[in-house]
Amino acid sequence: MATQPSQVLGVIPARWGSTRFPGKPLHLIAGKPLVQHVWERCLECRELTRTTVATDDERIAAAVEAFGGHATMTRPDHPSGTDRAAEVASAFPEMSHIINIQGDEPLIDPGLIDSLAAALLADPALPMITAANPLPASDPILGDPNVVKVTIDRNGHALYFSRSQIPHPRSVPDDLIYYRHKGIYGFRRDFLFDFVAWEPSLLERTEGLEQLRALENGARIRVVLTGDTSPGVDTPEQAAILHDLLSQ
């Protein structure tokens, strides 16, 4: 029997019911819904076989179809975007890998998405991948618990993710570099289904970071380093800043 070729599905979770910003995916930024900006970035990717917007809201699905995109309806009760991505993946059985792309980053670098997809395809044993931005030890955001940090081993795999500053700077070597985690994930198909089937782990529940579930279950997470510092949109104020930026 012939081996089925590897294919990569890009999934853009888009939920209406954001506590801080209801209806965020359809908020107009420079004349386009936020989710359309992300979709158009994904169209520039070379490694994505298909892309779909995963949503539980008919208004979002209708808007996506109106600008020529593809939407997949999901259940409304998913606890995370990863769970939503897994439901979508079940509707695309031909896809061997899934990239979960943040739906609120209109400036996401298509090259970063391609890098994650290419790394997954190059290593069939790799279950999961993500990205991080290098930060100098003097950066003040390291103390912000809303900024997730990651430590990385010599082979480029995550050791730990935390809202705390890791490693703790008891001393500060000249070559110390910190890493800010960037919330984009890639999964091998079978591992994605394993991941969402596991119970939330102790460290995950403590830190409020679902990627720790993978580490607690012994899985490797490759970390791709990137200079992409594209901002996300969490509030209407941030949307206004990006509107001005993209309207120039």
What does this molecule look like?
It is a single chain. With 248 residues, the chain is α/β, with parallel strands linked by helices. The protein has one domain: Spore Coat Polysaccharide Biosynthesis Protein SpsA, Chain A. It is built from eight helices and eleven strands. It has helices at residues 34-43, 58-66, 81-90, 110-122, 189-197, 202-207, 212-216, 236-246; strands spanning 8-14, 28-29, 32-33, 50-55, 71-73, 97-100, 128-136, 149-152, 158-162, 177-188, 221-225. The chain has a seven-stranded mixed β-sheet with strand order 5-4-1-6-10-7-11, with helices on both faces. The protein has a two-stranded antiparallel sheet with strand order 2-3. Helix 2 links the parallel strand 4 (50-55) and strand 5 (71-73). Helix 3 packs across helix 5. It is globular, with a radius of gyration of 18 Å. 38% of the residues are buried. The model has no long low-confidence stretch (mean pLDDT 93).
Unreliable parts: none
* CATH topology call: Spore Coat Polysaccharide Biosynthesis Protein SpsA, Chain A
Structural class: alpha/beta
The name of the CATH architecture is Alpha-Beta Complex
DSSP strand tally:
11
The count of helical stretches stands at 8
Structural domains: how many? 1
SSE run: EEEHEHEHEHEEEEHHHEH
How would you describe the shape? globular
End-to-end Cα distance, whole Å, is 54 Å
